[in-house]
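During the no-cost extension, the postdoctoral fellow (Dr. R.K.) reprocessed legacy sequence entries with the updated structure-token encoder. One reprocessed record is reproduced below for audit purposes.
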Amino acid sequence: MRNLLFVFLICIVCNACQDTSSTRSYDPNEVMTKEQQDSLAYALIRYMGKLPRHANHTNKFDSKFDSAYLQLAQKHILLALHKRDNNLFFMYARIAPSLVEKYVAVAGKVEVVNGDMISYEEVFRTWKKPMEELKPLSLKLFNEMIQGKDLSSYYPENSGDDYIIEFPSKEVYFDKTSRTWKRKGSTDSTTTVEEE
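Re-encoded structure tokens follow.
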């Protein structure tokens, strides 16, 4: 059921996407309707969102969590979207725990072939920042990601006091098989960074 729902939503999204490779505009509103953007967020939320209460990576696709994921998806803001061949590149912002209102950006890509999700990968997550700082910075990172540039100069160990990309780092990587962030050298292969 989970795969069928995901395939259906991704098909809708990919059919609606236009190739914007000739422009630098990654405005999602130029690529798809608001309804299609909502469908995309819901299709991806079980991977990029925080797990609902009582959910884990084994049961997160159970239908009992559907309403929690729907609410969570509505709290994610689609900042950028780009389609190239079978790849759909995305970047969302979500509110982060903080004394003042701050957000993190989550950027990645999904490969879809004949309606099937072949891969899901998060390329980076930023440190939390006020939206007026986060948006231009994250769009710059997104553009460099689309161009295939090396983003390692923005990693925590290389960016000095400029707190730009939180993940990946020399200690944290995205595991494409489990579709989660993992800590290198962790003895527990099932524990994700968010669960630590």
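The chain has four helices and seven strands. The helical segments are 2-16, 34-48, 66-74, 131-146. The remaining legacy entries will be reprocessed before the final report is submitted.
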